[in-house]
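Figure 2 data, in text form.
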Amino acid sequence: MSTACLLLGLALAAVPHPQSHSTSRVRVEGRAVRLELRCQAAALIEAVGHDRDRDGALSAEELVEARLDAEAYVGRTYRLVVLDGSGAAQTVALRLRTLTPAASLRDLGDEPWVDAVLEGSTTLEPVALRAELELFRARNPLHRDVATVVWNDEPARVFLTGPGVSGWTFEPAARRRPGVLLGFGRLGLEHILSGWDHLCFLLALLLAARRLRSLVATVTAFTAAHSLTLALAALRLVHVPARPVELAIALSIAYVALENLLLPRSSSRWVEAFAFGLVHGLGFAGFLGQSLLDEPLKLTALAGFNLGVELGQLAVVVPLALALRVLPGARRAAGGEQDEAPALAPLWARRGASALVAALGLWWFVGRAGWL
């Protein structure tokens, strides 16, 4: 298990910026197609370069130089394919109209972002739209995109692409529209399963548990807390800048993992789980808020996303807990009281995995603080 954890840690540490994501808005009006893409400047620099002063941002002048490369790159990695009633397909040739620094950073943290608008048209009579995305994945396989599709006058619909999901297909209501609850449930499930920082925090809590009952209490406290702040922030009732939230999440991971190493006995961590869960909920909300902007059934979407997150947590915690229970090795620290409940994880697994999680938490903190 220690070797597997080490390999996982090295793989994660090698990712240029684990919080890599973008938002896109695809509008279809008759035969006209418009793509509005907002991406991190760091991701675009990795893809096309043109950061002449090496400041990690793209100025207006640098973006003018990058226009042709950016147009070619987005057209190649964000392919929009129109389908007609006969099954014929046509890839939309997208032409770059504007490429500018993002105008508003309120929900995007302190790092620089870029806005790109591309337009095209089709000769077909469109009845569906398919997207095939490789956007920014060559350098960062964990990159995620949240796409909002507006089809003529229909209500907008949201799609997520990320690890394991490389595209989506939109069909208007006249053909088929899956339920909002199910769609956002899948969004939440995919988000938690690709959110390595949140999964590492859950692993640290799991390693601290004495028995399954205390683990249930801890995970329940974490769930209740992040559900609360997720709802408040995603519905824009509260707002906390993204950068301090991401830094606090990284520190929470390192803190709980270091507690596992420094405390001689395992213990229930439901208080820490609840407190840090409030912070992690704000991290979820920063991702979800963009998805809810055009969704008319916000409460239904929020409930579906929460459900997906919880299912994802269970899918990770339950198998790991069962695996830790059957691993060989001592579960009480030397000199511990005999009537003390044994830890769920053997000491060697607890110490080795906690050391790795602590290192990852500190690594993410340093990276998010811009010190790398």
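Caption note: The beta strands are 21-29, 32-40, 78-84, 89-91, 95-101, 113-121, 126-133, 144-151, 157-161, 167-170.
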